[in-house]
Amino acid sequence: MPNIQLLDPQISSLELIKKSQAVATGTGTAAWEALFQEKTVLLFGHPSFQFAPGLSIIRSQEDCKKAIDASVAGTKPSIKDLKLYLKA
After folding, report:
1. Which candidate, 4, 81, 87, 88, places its Cα nearest to that of 35?
2. DSSP character for 78?
3. pTM (2 decimals)?
């Protein structure tokens, strides 16, 4: 597939996220790591934190397109909003 690369599993996920525009994941730590680096997250699963600010829940192709468009437009999560979410 074009634009797809397999990477060494020893590469730091934090470094990959740092250099990314957005992160797509099913669930897990990568979503949190991305949110706290103010990256857009496209979430394809149902984790307990699915209502955290900055996540785009993907249920359809249209959801995916909207999330990618928002990322390209520069929309990103707010650290302040994430901290408020965690305090709730």
Report:
1. 81
2. -
3. 0.79
In the predicted model, is pLDDT for residue 1 greater than 70?
no
Tally of structural domains, the chain:
1
What is the structure's pLDDT at 59? 94
Q: Does any domain span residue 7?
A: no
Radius of gyration of the chain (CA): 13
Residue 1: inside a domain, yes or no?
no
Does residue 8 lie within any of the structural domains? no
Stretch 18-40: mean pLDDT: 92
Residues with Cβ within 8 Å of residue 21, at least 6 apart in sequence:
39, 40, 71, 72
End-to-end CA distance of the chain: 42
Question: Which residue segment(s) compose the domain that 19 sits in?
Answer: 13-87
